[in-house]
Amino acid sequence: MNSRREIQITTVSWYSTALIRDLVQNLCDKAARPELLRFLVIDNSDGKDDELPSVISEDVNIEIRSFFGEGLQRSVAHASALNIGMKYLDATYVLITDPDIHVFQPGWDDICRNELSKDFSALGAPYPPWKLGKIHDFPSPVFFFTETESLLNLHPDWYPFPGALRRSYNFFARKILRLGPVCSKERLRKHARLRSLAQKLERKVGICSPDTGSKIVESMRERSYLPLVFEAVYADDDRLIMNESYSSLLDLAKHFELYLYDDKPFMTHCYGSGVFHWKTERSDQTEFWKESIIAYEESFPKCA
């Protein structure tokens, strides 16, 4: 493994050139040691995205690998591309991340390295609590930071889905857990009792909506890996409401995903999904997500 404490940032692109370009700029700008960042982009269009090579720069170490993901279910395509990416990991650390994230925290790279130097084996952004039936106590591929050797020792398989029988069970379990259409992100945010009921049901039902990386989390549990997860917050969180300057963060928490580390904004994830339970009236507006990021960072230049 590389001795320079390099971080290999691995992400999957599906015609996501603009997001990849912003991601590279953001992570380099906010890094304490940008010279130790390397980017590995798995192109799920198998080279058909003519714009993607434009992200390559003389100033940043970027490698693009192709994979044919067309026609595969979204999570399967993502997981299959990440599995390809595992073959090219050779830095000391790896950050698996989605293209549509933005980090607020300066020195994020040193924070991640320092936390792993303690007792933690992995850290990052879990699936947020309103995504019922998913894993909330381990990092997800939205932002998953760990030592490369530790990850490869698991013989990682990012494929998310179990066998047909378990999948059938999960389908009906999700209906029960989400109370049909009732447990949407908006309703869970507005109604504390509904949120409490959903959490109790989730503890009984368990993981019924396994997503990309769920098998890796199972392997980590078996080996007693200790995770550190950021906190995904609702827009009614007092830490946001009590600060009048946080209006743009309220928008990010309400319509997208906002994560705190040590009670401070660490990152946001756009995730423009069409899933009924998670979307809001503006959750598919990427430009609004970007405007909210800019508004916050202009209010707090120390984060820029």
Q: Give the overall average pLDDT.
A: 93
Taking strands numbered 1, 2, ... along the chain, how are they ordered across the largest sheet?
3-2-1-4-7-6-8
Strand content: 15-25%
Number of helices: 11
Major sheet description: 7 strands, mixed
β-strand number? 11
Distance between the termini: 32 Å
Q: Can you tell me the overall shape?
A: globular
Stretches where pLDDT is under 50 for at least 5 consecutive residues are none
Q: CATH topology of the largest domain, what is it called?
A: Spore Coat Polysaccharide Biosynthesis Protein SpsA, Chain A
Write out the CATH superfamily name of the largest domain: Spore Coat Polysaccharide Biosynthesis Protein SpsA, Chain A
Integer count of domains: 2
Question: Helical amount among residues, as a percent range?
Answer: 25-40%
- Any idea what the CATH architecture of the largest domain is? Alpha-Beta Complex
Round the Cα radius of gyration to an integer and report it.
Answer: 19 Å
Class by alpha and beta content: alpha/beta
- SSE succession: EHEEHEEHEEHHHHHEEHHEEH
Q: CATH top level of the largest domain?
A: Alpha Beta
Characterization of the model:
With 304 residues, the protein is of the alpha/beta class. It folds into two domains: 1-160 and 210-229, Spore Coat Polysaccharide Biosynthesis Protein SpsA, Chain A, CATH 3.90.550; 231-299, no CATH class. 36% of the residues lie in helices and 17% in strands. The chain has helices at residues 17-30, 74-85, 108-116, 148-152, 164-177, 185-190, 192-205, 214-222, 238-241, 247-255, 286-299, and strands at residues 7-13, 37-43, 61-66, 93-97, 101-103, 122-125, 143-147, 227-229, 231-232, 257-261, 264-269. It has a seven-stranded mixed β-sheet with strand order 3-2-1-4-7-6-8. It has a four-stranded antiparallel β-sheet with strand order 5-11-10-9. A hairpin with a 2-residue loop joins strand 10 (257-261) and strand 11. Helix 10 (247-255) packs antiparallel against helix 11. The chain starts with 6 loop residues before the first strand and ends in a 5-residue tail after the last helix. 38% of the residues are buried. The mean pLDDT is 93.
